[in-house]
C-alpha cells in the first residue's frame, strides 16, 4: 500500500494536505475500521486499498463541507457496507448450490480448523483480550444498521454529529440506532456475563 501512496503522491489539495499526507494520517485508521466491519485482515487490507484509490480519484471533489476524516469515514463505511452486502448475496447463492449435508460438514471442518490454528486457553490469553474478543464478535453479529454506528462510536470515538454525517442519518436516528445496538449487545452478551 505504501508504494501506491508514493506513486500517486502528487500535489492535490483537501485543505492544504497532499494525498500522501492523507494516507499517512488516516491509512491505519481506515484499515482498523475496515477490519472492525469485516473481521478479516486480508479483506480489510484490500478494502483499505480500494478506499484510498477512491479517495485519490475524488479528492478534487472534496468541498470542505465536512471534516476530512468524516468524508474519509463515509467513503470507508459505504465501501465496506457494499462489500458486506455483495458477500452476503454471494454466500446465499453458494449455499443454494450446496446440499445440506455438505453445509454441515463444511461448518464442522471450518470450526475444527479454527481451533487448531488458534488454540485458545485461559493460560495463553489475557483476561482483557478475551473480553474484547467476545465483545468484538458480538458486535460483528449485530445487524449492519446497528453495527456501523456503534463501531464508529466505540472504536473511533466519533461524536454523534460526525457519525450521523458519515452514515447520512439524522442525529436522532443515529442516537436511536446506537441505543438499540447497545440494548442488543447487552442481550447477546448475557450468556458471557461471567467471562466479562
What order do the helices and strands come in, and which of them pair?
Elements: H1 2-7, H2 19-38, H3 41-58, H4 68-96, H5 100-117, H6 127-140, H7 144-154, H8 160-167, H9 171-189
Highlighted features:
196 residues; mainly alpha; Rna Polymerase Sigma Factor, Chain: A; Arc Repressor Mutant, subunit A; 9 helices; 73% helix; globular
Summary?
The protein has 196 residues and is mostly helical.
Please explain how this structure is put together.
The structure is a single chain. This protein has 196 residues and is mainly α. It has 2 domains: 1-119, Orthogonal Bundle (Rna Polymerase Sigma Factor, Chain: A); 122-196, Orthogonal Bundle (Arc Repressor Mutant, subunit A). The chain is built from 9 helices and no strands. It has helices at 2-7, 19-38, 41-58, 68-96, 100-117, 127-140, 144-154, 160-167, 171-189. Helix 2 (19-38) runs parallel beside helix 4. The chain is globular. 22% of the residues are buried. Residues 1-15 and 95-116 have low confidence and may be disordered.
Amino acid at each position: 500500500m505504501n508504494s501506491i501512496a508514493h506513486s500517486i503522491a502528487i500535489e492535490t489539495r483537501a485543505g492544504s494536505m497532499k494525498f500522501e499526507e492523507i494516507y499517512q494520517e488516516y491509512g491505519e485508521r481506515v484499515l482498523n475500521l475496515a477490519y472492525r466491519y469485516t473481521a478479516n485482515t486480508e479483506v480489510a487490507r484490500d478494502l483499505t486499498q480500494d478506499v484510498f484509490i477512491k479517495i485519490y480519484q475524488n479528492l478534487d471533489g472534496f468541498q470542505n463541507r465536512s471534516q476530512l476524516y468524516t468524508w474519509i469515514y463515509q467513503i470507508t463505511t459505504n465501501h465496506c457496507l457494499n462489500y458486506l452486502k455483495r458477500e452476503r448475496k454471494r454466500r446465499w447463492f453458494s449455499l443454494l448450490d450446496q446440499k445440506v449435508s455438505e453445509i454441515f460438514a463444511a461448518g464442522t471442518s471450518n470450526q475444527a480448523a479454527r481451533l487448531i490454528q488458534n488454540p485458545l486457553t485461559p493460560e495463553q490469553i489475557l483476561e482483557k483480550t478475551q473480553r474484547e474478543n467476545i465483545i468484538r464478535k458480538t458486535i460483528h453479529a449485530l445487524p449492519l444498521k446497528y453495527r456501523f454506528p456503534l463501531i464508529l462510536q466505540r472504536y473511533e470515538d466519533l461524536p454523534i454529529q460526525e457519525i450521523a454525517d458519515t452514515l447520512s442519518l439524522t442525529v436522532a436516528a443515529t442516537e436511536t440506532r446506537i441505543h438499540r445496538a447497545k440494548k442488543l449487545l447487552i442481550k447477546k452478551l448475557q450468556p458471557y456475563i461471567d467471562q466479562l
